[in-house]
Structures are given as C-alpha cells and as structure tokens.
From TrEMBL:
<keyword id="KW-1133">Transmembrane helix</keyword>
<protein>
    <recommendedName>
        <fullName>cytochrome-c oxidase</fullName>
        <ecNumber>7.1.1.9</ecNumber>
    </recommendedName>
</protein>
<dbReference type="Pfam" id="PF00510">
    <property type="entry name" value="COX3"/>
</dbReference>
<feature type="transmembrane region" description="Helical">
    <location>
        <begin position="47"/>
        <end position="65"/>
    </location>
</feature>
<dbReference type="InterPro" id="IPR013833">
    <property type="entry name" value="Cyt_c_oxidase_su3_a-hlx"/>
</dbReference>
<feature type="transmembrane region" description="Helical">
    <location>
        <begin position="90"/>
        <end position="107"/>
    </location>
</feature>
<keyword id="KW-1278">Translocase</keyword>
<keyword id="KW-1003">Cell membrane</keyword>
<dbReference type="GO" id="GO:0019646">
    <property type="term" value="P:aerobic electron transport chain"/>
</dbReference>
<dbReference type="InterPro" id="IPR000298">
    <property type="entry name" value="Cyt_c_oxidase-like_su3"/>
</dbReference>
<feature type="transmembrane region" description="Helical">
    <location>
        <begin position="172"/>
        <end position="191"/>
    </location>
</feature>
<keyword id="KW-0472">Membrane</keyword>
<dbReference type="GO" id="GO:0005886">
    <property type="term" value="C:plasma membrane"/>
</dbReference>
<feature type="transmembrane region" description="Helical">
    <location>
        <begin position="127"/>
        <end position="151"/>
    </location>
</feature>
<keyword id="KW-0812">Transmembrane</keyword>
<dbReference type="InterPro" id="IPR024791">
    <property type="entry name" value="Cyt_c/ubiquinol_Oxase_su3"/>
</dbReference>
<feature type="domain" description="Heme-copper oxidase subunit III family profile">
    <location>
        <begin position="1"/>
        <end position="192"/>
    </location>
</feature>
Length: 192
C-alpha cells in the first residue's frame, strides 16, 4: 500500500511540475527576447556537473535499495569494502551527494544574483527561481526522508521487509526528483 500511495502522490507532483514547465515554454514562446538575454548568464558546465552529481546519487540510492531488499540494513566487514556495504552506507552516500547538489544550487543562485538575475528582476528570473527552487525544496524533502530511513536502520535488530519498504518508497521519490531535474536541466540549460 505504501508503494501505491507513493506512486499516486508522485503523479500529483508530476502535475505540479508540469505547470512549472508550462511557465518556461510559454515564456520562451511569448518573450524570446527575454529568453535570449538571460540564458547566456547561466553556467551550463557547472549545472551539468551538478546534474551528474544528482544522477550518480540515484545510482547509489538504487544500490542501497538492492541491499535493503537483500535484508542487509548495514555493512558487513570494513568501511572500505564496498561489496559489504548495506543500505545504510549507500543511503548515506546518496544523502551526501544530494546535499552537494543543493549546495551547488545555492552557489548558482549566488552567481546569478551577481549577474542581475533575481526572483524579481523579470519574468525569466521568476520562472527560473520558482522551478529550480521548488525542485530544491523537493530534494531537501528527500534528504529528510533519507535521514529518517538511515535512523530507522539503527533501531532495527534485524532488517526485515517492513524496513526495506521504507527504503524502497524513498527511492521512488528520489528517482522521481532526479528525472524531474533532468527534464528541468534540459529545458532551462540546453534550450537556447
């Protein structure tokens, strides 16, 4: 039931982000001059590296899900033995990469603000900060979920299917956030 509920909820989130995409495509159609003026200020190589960080975090997350499905909540063996890592270690790595992604977004906001692109500068700035900002809020929500799942792994004596379900549902959300970002990145940074 938790998985089905999560998928239904993510469907509503998809509609929310569809509205944000509509803003960008409408802006591009109605004000191509504004689009042409503001997009050169974007740091595409930096955003691409930040995107790769988020994509890699999804890989770590999925490896953690596989460990959770195997009933391995934490590592067996040394910390540097990656084959012995459990869900907890892979989710900690996912959390770190997600945090780096959010820090990258904050850095990019600071850089764009210095170039005059702010939430209130024009329609492009408003659309940019709304779409990327709402996505960053969703990433932060995913990071909180990872902390909860990691914390629960410390309280379980044996890692059962019930604990694995929480890890799996969290991965659904994280992969959703990742796919949405890839689409946002392509819309915002690649469409010139």
């Amino acid at each position: 039931m938790a998985a089905v509920g999560t998928i239904v909820w993510l469907s509503s989130e998809l509609m929310f982000f569809a509205g944000l995409f509509a803003i960008f495509f409408t802006l591009r159609a109605v004000r191509p001059d504004l689009w042409a003026m503001e997009t050169p200020k974007l740091n595409v190589p930096f955003a691409t590296v930040n995107t790769l960080i988020l994509v890699i975090s999804s890989v770590w997350c999925q490896i953690g899900v596989h460990r959770a499905e195997q009933g391995r909540g934490s590592r067996i063996g040394g910390i540097f033995d990656l084959r012995g890592w459990g869900m907890r270690e892979w989710y900690v790595l996912t959390y770190i990469f997600g945090g780096i992604f959010v820090a990258g977004q904050v850095f990019e906001y600071a850089e764009l603000t210095m170039h005059g692109v702010t939430l209130y500068s024009n329609a492009y700035g408003s659309a940019f900060y709304m779409t990327t900002g709402f996505h960053a809020i969703h990433v932060a929500g995913g990071l909180v979920a990872f902390l909860l799942i990691i914390g629960r792994s410390f309280t379980a004596r044996t890692y059962t299917h019930r604990q694995a379900t929480g890890a799996i549902v969290t991965s659904y959300y994280w992969h959703f956030v990742d796919v949405v970002w890839i689409a946002l990145w392509a819309t915002i940074y690649l469409l010139r």
